[in-house]
Amino acid sequence: MATIFKKIQMFENITKLTSRQFLQFSVRNYRHRRALMYVPGSDERKINKIASLNADCVALDCEDGVALNKKDEARDIIRKKLEHIIPTANGDIGVRVNSIESGLCEKDLEVCLSGTHLPHTVLLPKVENSDHLKWFSDRINKFIKTDQKVNLIIYIESAKAFINLSDICKTAFTLSECNKFTPTSLVFGSDDFCASIGATRTEDSTEILYARQKLVLCAKAFHLQAIDMVYIKYKDLEGLKRQCEEGMRMGYTGKQVIHPNQIETVQESFLPALATVEWAKGLLDAFEEHQATGKGAFNYRGSMIDMPTMKQAKNIIDIVKPVKKKST
Prior knowledge:
two-stranded antiparallel sheet; 2 domains; Aldolase/citrate-lyase_domain; alpha/beta; Citrate_lyase_beta/mcl1/mcl2; eight-stranded parallel β-barrel
């Protein structure tokens, strides 16, 4: 934990940038979600510990983390706990509902959105087509009685979902323009995906490489966060770190977490190295100076710089800024 805070303090001075309207094309200003931590909605003891987790995003779970005979209990607990959690929450507090096809989703939404304090985010699993989003849009408008919007995190977990992924993203943004939700992220559900294609899991995950990369591709095309698969060996922090670093190199912005001892490793791994942030900050400063003199491409630290490189530098700073803001 101390390592993360030390890193953030160093970023405080590095990220004091001047205004650059010419670089406002990169990433939408969403809440940071390096670690997406699941907490069973039926377990009050674990929910009461949320404030101590320091996770960017916590999902109160109605789905996989709750037994079928505990679903009603989980909904009621979540609704009551949101009244106390939301007013003081430092991070993103969401509710993962059951899938639409399960027949349980409508009741999840009705109960969990009926309180005075709504969750910041609804996490919708097993989205496979645009009709699922149209269904969700109708229900979210029905159950939210105020003008408030919630964020939407979409789970992609099957072969059919990947075939329809571009259409899913387009539909989400089209519907969000006149409805009470804002799409923010895509999540890769690797285990359900493997089951849907009959793949056998391996240590290096080559069998899901294409899907893992395609999710990042679509997420970035629509300016969405990309949240990577679960690392199930929760005691193996070295293996977790390797997989986090691999995901970050691919373009993922965060990772699903199933145990509190994974949070620190994940959140530290999804911060760029200090030297990288210093490079990006220096590059943006140099770019501004050259723009003032009317120059286009220019040399920086021995490399020729053009606009794609500038976008990469801006993305690095965008990763750091929400973390800096959260720490203040």
